[in-house]
Specification:
single chain; about 220 residues; alpha+beta; Gyrase A, domain 2; 2 domains; elongated; binds flavin-adenine dinucleotide
């Protein structure tokens, strides 16, 4: 998997802090923007997150290239509705010789890995045969597995990202989308350290488990930044 932060709203921490501060200040937005120190932004943004005043987080957006993930992952990803997605089409782009994503549980078992490879080869051959018979790609793709590698560009605002990271960094999330979520978290914290200071699974970010009876029982250790 490769995840690249392609672009994002400039000065995301300051944009959100300014927008939120405006709600409580008689000053002009430009004045607030110019005078806001890093320390003031930090204190203010922490308050917003703790109080659940999250709508100002919608002012900033982050766009990622997500490569080499499975269709199993992308199906889960696009359930996050507050985002924009573009995904390589299996109608227009051939999947002959597609790369399969190999789950670690299968990779570590030689016999499972061999069986997996046999079935993938059979699907690849079947797909190619159907296309050669004149079956359109959009129909031949009905053979394709969840393992089939895909590529996406995804844009999400910071509010939606906080929700995504809370749900998908959690150990209860499936391993591949969890891997993606942690990679995204690392990248957004680099460019927007204040917005994402309190982010990730609730055990790490907020000190409790939102999964209740379904808790994994293995909370993440508090980070030392
Ligand atoms: C561990 C785990 C297991 C899961 N298992 C399953 C499963 O077995 N089956 C399954 O179908 N899904 C499953 N999901 C997917 C899950 O139900 C959500 O669809 C997915 O996580 C997207 O979350 P979301 O709706 O909060 O995100 P978004 O769609 O991005 O929505 C963000 C927020 O906006 C608000 N919102 C968005 N749309 C509406 C709306 N129409 N009405 C009201 N409020 C709205 C909600 O507050 C929502 O939290 C699972 C998710 C996780 C993390």
């Amino acid at each position: 998997m490769k995840v690249t932060l392609l672009t994002y709203t400039p000065e995301p921490d300051r944009v959100v802090a300014t927008a939120a501060r405006l709600c409580y200040s008689p000053k002009q937005p430009g004045e607030i923007w110019a005078a806001f120190t890093q320390e003031e932004q930090k204190t203010f943004l922490e308050k917003l997150i703790v109080n659940g005043h999250e709508s100002p987080f919608e002012h900033v957006s982050f766009t990622f290239a997500i490569e080499g993930v499975s269709r199993a992952l992308s199906h889960q990803l696009v359930r996050h509705r507050i985002a924009s997605y573009s995904q390589r089409s299996q109608r227009y782009v051939t999947e002959a010789g597609f790369n399969p994503v190999l789950p670690p549980s299968i990779a570590q078992s030689p016999s499972a890995k061999e069986r997996f490879a046999q079935v993938i080869k059979s699907i690849q051959d079947g797909y190619t045969d159907l296309v050669k018979m004149g079956i359109p790609k959009e129909d031949a793709r009905y053979l394709l597995p969840n393992a089939c590698e895909t590529q996406l560009v995804m844009s999400m605002n910071a509010r939606s990202l906080l929700n995504f990271l809370e749900l998908r960094c959690c150990r209860r999330a499936q391993w591949e989308i969890r891997d993606l979520a942690w990679r995204i978290r690392t990248q957004v914290r680099t460019v927007a350290p204040l917005l994402f200071a309190i982010s990730g699974p609730t055990c790490l970010a907020k000190g409790y488990c939102r999964e209740g009876a379904f808790s994994c029982g293995q909370p993440y250790e508090k980070e030392v930044d």
